[in-house]
């Protein structure tokens, strides 16, 4: 009898482990997060920033799947961010993620379809846990309970979304109205309808309803089920994305989708394409502290506060301030005698807004973009696969930059038509190719690169290489680079 009981529990545990490993997190890492400007910008959006802890949002998202015991994630991102994604996942201890590169942005439905096709190649019954890279969850224990409910419904062939119990009448989220409970799946409900982001009066009405939930944008579904519904409702996505996946190629540690087919896919969200049309939609009500961190006001809600209701980050001093969010990623920020303000300071921009107008920050970003200001989309610090650079001084005919190269990394072999460069090493050791010469440049030494010479910078050491670059010439734009050879396959 004891052996029979032991055998039963061994088989039960094997089944549970098999089912858990059959869940593949799919992380969508797109968007620019313009409402969190000036920290979040197109070149380095909010999912790559540590906004709530010492982990970035994409790291926190990926680690949730690991905490649940699920398989390694599939991450969908654009080519520009591929090395940032890879580095941040490695830093979080996730080394076997599949990073899929979109050649162009086509919204969430084609991106999810690409992941579904790739997962289905191995197992069409594998369950996708689809989620954005930039959401916050504060109660991981409650999340695990909701995942168990969603897993049961997905195993039964449902496309399951997660609806969050509202804590306020929010106009920045869509809503889901829950219907009857599913037969045989406790805690999961039919979806009566999806509701667009409401005006204030409608949001108040939905908040008062016990059936209406915030739409989190997270889904659970079998890869094969999602693809079947895609084929039925969006055959063009099924055709074009399927072709793009079949024609993909491997580039270093990345999977590049074929561009021509993927570009022909309709630009449509998964809500419009599938969720609002399928008869398989179900919802799990959750209360695990979810937020898409879509505005500075939302971040104020999630951040610990002082006795006066102020949330701060960085080098900040307050005097007689109440209910403010103040963040500085650079110089000291002082705020006095004000209530309900958002103040965000970065090395190249300052943003001040009333908390009630937090959603309107994106309007200012649009104005900056229309004015041709690079600050709308790019930070002063620009990340590259080998490290980063940042401008220290800019003038008409010269520019001073700080360049940091990671150990073992190297820049492309290149030349310039309009500028000469002078490099001064201030930390580490540089190996410099200058035309036919290979020169070792150590700390406190320098090297001159005349106009038109073919050159390359490498870090052969075990610590980061830091140097000061002085550019001089009539044109100093980043497009004055002719790459002759590049280990990162950039043009």
Structure description:
The chain is α/β, with parallel strands linked by helices and 491 residues long. It has three domains: 2-291, Spore Coat Polysaccharide Biosynthesis Protein SpsA, Chain A; 302-370, no CATH class; 381-485, Jelly Rolls. The protein is built from twelve helices and 30 strands. The strands form seven sheets. A six-stranded antiparallel β-sheet has the order 20-21-22-29-24-27, with no helix packed on it. The protein has a five-stranded mixed barrel with strand order 6-9-7-8-12. Strands 14-16-18-19 form a four-stranded mixed β-sheet, covered by helices on one side. Helix 4 packs across helix 8 (235-246). The protein is globular, with a radius of gyration of 25 Å. The model is unreliable at 8-19 (pLDDT under 50). It is an enzyme of class 2 (transferase). One of its GO terms (biological process) is polysaccharide biosynthetic process. This is mannose-1-phosphate guanylyltransferase. It comes from Gluconobacter cerinus. It catalyses: alpha-D-mannose 1-phosphate + GTP + H(+) = GDP-alpha-D-mannose + diphosphate.
């Amino acid at each position: 009898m004891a052996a029979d009981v032991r055998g039963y529990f061994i088989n039960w545990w094997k089944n549970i482990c098999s089912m858990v490993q059959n869940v593949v997190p799919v992380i969508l890492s797109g968007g620019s997060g313009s409402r969190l400007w000036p920290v979040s910008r197109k070149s380095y959006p909010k999912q790559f920033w540590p906004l709530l802890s010492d982990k970035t949002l994409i790291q926190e998202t990926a680690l949730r799947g690991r905490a649940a015991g699920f398989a390694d994630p599939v991450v969908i991102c654009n080519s520009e961010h591929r090395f940032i994604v890879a580095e941040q996942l490695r830093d979080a201890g996730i080394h076997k993620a599949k990073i899929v590169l979109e050649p162009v942005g086509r919204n969430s439905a084609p991106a999810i379809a690409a992941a579904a096709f790739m997962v289905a190649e191995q197992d069409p019954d594998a369950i996708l846990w689809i989620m954005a890279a930039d959401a916050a969850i504060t109660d991981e224990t409650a999340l695990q309970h909701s995942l168990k409910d969603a897993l049961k419904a997905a195993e039964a062939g449902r496309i399951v979304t997660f609806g969050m119990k509202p804590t306020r009448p929010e106009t920045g989220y869509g809503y889901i109205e829950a219907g009857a409970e599913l037969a045989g799946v406790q805690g999961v409900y039919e979806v009566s309808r999806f509701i667009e982001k409401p005006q204030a009066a409608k949001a108040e009405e939905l908040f008062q309803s016990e059936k209406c939930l915030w739409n989190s944008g997270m889904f659970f579904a079998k890869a094969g089920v999602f693809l079947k519904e895609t084929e039925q409702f969006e055959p063009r996505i099924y055709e074009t994305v399927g072709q793009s996946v079949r024609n993909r190629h491997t580039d270093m540690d990345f999977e590049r989708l074929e561009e021509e087919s993927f570009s022909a896919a309709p630009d449509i969200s998964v809500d419009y394409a599938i969720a609002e049309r399928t008869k398989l939609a179900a919802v799990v009500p959750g209360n695990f502290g979810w937020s898409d961190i879509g505005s500075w006001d939302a971040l104020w809600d999630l951040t610990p506060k002082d006795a006066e209701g102020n949330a701060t980050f960085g080098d900040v001093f307050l005097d007689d301030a109440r209910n403010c969010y103040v963040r500085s990623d650079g110089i000291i920020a002082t705020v006095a005698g004000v209530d309900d303000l958002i103040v965000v300071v970065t090395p190249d921009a300052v943003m001040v807004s009333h908390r009630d107008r937090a959603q309107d920050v994106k309007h200012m970003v649009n104005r900056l973009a229309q004015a041709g200001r690079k600050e709308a989309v790019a930070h002063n610090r620009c990340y590259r696969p080998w490290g980063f650079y940042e401008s220290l001084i800019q003038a008409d005919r010269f520019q001073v930059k700080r360049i940091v190269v990671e150990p073992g990394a190297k820049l492309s072999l290149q030349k310039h038509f309009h500028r000469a460069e002078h490099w001064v090493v201030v930390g580490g050791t540089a190996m410099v190719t200058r035309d036919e010469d290979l020169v070792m440049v150590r700390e406190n030494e320098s090297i001159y690169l005349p106009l038109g010479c073919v050159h390359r910078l490498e870090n052969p050491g075990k610590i980061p290489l830091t140097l000061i670059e002085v550019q001089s010439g009539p044109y100093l734009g980043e497009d004055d680079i002719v790459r002759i050879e590049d280990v990162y396959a950039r043009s």
